[in-house]
Fold Dol-P-Man:Man(5)GlcNAc(2)-PP-Dol alpha-1,3-mannosyltransferase.
Amino acid sequence: MDWKHRIRDVCVNPWHTKWIAPLLVLGDAFLCALIIWKVPYTEIDWTTYMQQISLYLNGERDYTLIKGSTGPLVYPAAHVYSYTFLYHLTDEGRDIFFGQILFAVLYLITLVVVLACYRQSGAPPYLLPLLVLSKRLHSIFVLRLFNDGLAALAMWVAVLLFLNRKYTAAVAVWSTGVAVKMALLLLAPAIAVVLVLELSLLPSVRIGVVAGLIQVLLAMPFLLDNPAGYLSRAFELTRQFMFKWTVNWRFAGEELFLSKRFSLALLALHVCLLGAFVIIGWLRPSGVSVPRFLQNLLAGRHQPVSLSKPYVMTAMLSSLAIGLLCARSLHYQFFAYLAWASPFLLWRAGFHPVLVYIIWALQEWAWNTYPSTNLSSMVVVLSLSVQTFGVLANSARAFDTTRSKQSGKQHMQ
């Protein structure tokens, strides 16, 4: 085998992931250490988190009364418990350096889980360098200490458990992640489809009940004090977003951004895209039309389908991409969910590796442009559109249910 064929094989053969991945993790560990050493920490929400936790530890359980210097507590209960743990580990939040080390470890653990998901899904190794090169992603974890890092870990652990058909554990981890930040609700449509296809209706409902019970149990101390206050703050769906912070819709203009009709249009688009994915892609493994599938499901005649790992991961990440594309407003920390999903989605869309790298680079540039501009926000939306509609257009292959290992070689042709 000549050197050209060897390089090609390393780039496209998933077998090589088993030695490439550890090298990338090791290199990224050094990069995280270098960032902490050389790049100044940026205070945004950490102090506020610690102020809120101090109130919680002093006995406050009314969510409407838990506030910090930059605003009220607007995240669910698992966020409080997670940062309570960090509060104690970092000398009440004063030891920010140690906090950065903890978040670097969190980042690396999440990266390992992501790499495991990519390997199990048969992704070609040429995608893997993109998982460790994001400036914005490193910033979110080790320079900002946002709770999105914790939620991202929960998301990817849930994906890994779904890939290995540990459905109850997967939903439990996912629900816990939702209790850190409700952005993970964007995966709910695909989770429901995967469960119903694999398990049928009643087992899926039972697992759904588990997810709900986890939310109730985690929130119980706050629900007993002020249930309406907890629900309105932790899961506020009517929040008015500020135009100056938007990463994705700046090019639309402030008047349109703040309008009710724009919000309703995005909601309608979200519903339509989910419907399109259900009809064209997600229910493809059932082998029947949507009406027939629903009839069989409700009549108890649905035969469980064995889903491939690439299908499961594509379904879940496409659900995420749809939600982000149709989001009322994206802030920079939302990149914690998208950054590791994009290379996989671009691959499943069937794009040539060169095009994958170009789109990735454009997206990375857009998310690193601060403050956002008309051009950068347009690139954010276009890159999400390319991922979403690319997967939809390539649904015959993107939602293939073949369980055999994929070589990835066809993607270099």
Residues 14-412 form one domain. The chain has a mean pLDDT of 94. The radius of gyration is 21 Å. The chain is about 65% helix and 0% strand.
